[in-house]
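Comment thread on ticket #2218

A.B. wrote:
> Attaching the input chain for the structure job we discussed in standup.
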Amino acid sequence: MPEAILFDLDGTLADTAPDLGGAMNQLLYEQGQEPLPVERLRPHVSSGARGMIGAGLGVTPEDNEYPGLLQRFLAIYQEALCIDTRLFSGIGQHLDELEKQGIPWGIVTNKSQRFAIPLMQQLGLRQRSACIVCGDSAQRAKPHAHPMQLASALIGVAAENCIYIGDDERDIISGRAAGMTTIVAAWGYLGEGSPPAAWGADAIAGSPKEILGIAATRR
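C.D. wrote:
> Ran it. Output below, let me know if you need it in another format.
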């Protein structure tokens, strides 16, 4: 059994798509565009604001209008971080079981602190998590190894004794680069790139209840 388990936030621990999609649709309304179904936006959530703006408006960071749209999107989202956001089914019970077994858990996300910390607070998890490493906490964000290394240091568990669970390929790249065991959260957003089986993870979990079973076979 590993000594610690770390999670990505959006698409792994919590289903944030409803609120991020709501923010995107508010931005679309302000731009005179029709709203989009949240399910169409869902695969892009793990790519953050860049992915949402690209999916909703077809605008990329290279476009002149991107900075203004980005700031407006983030302002809208900050006002409605946790209206319809919920933990994925089974996550709450899984966290309870980890704590019962004395296994610390934490978050490594590319979400910035201004969003991740209040969101974890509103979900009732800020004080329970052993660490919350954000995109602007580390010197470099995922897929670099540094966020994982920082989380390992904060929890006080060597990286090779940690498991990292995420729903995006960069999560797996980052965890592997730090020497962690990696698990794909197949219930997450997964993006629109290569299939999870091609990401090189140690395992793929179909639901949160599978995590401890997989973990028991690892270090």
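A.B. wrote:
> Thanks. Noting for the ticket: The longest strand covers residues 162-166.
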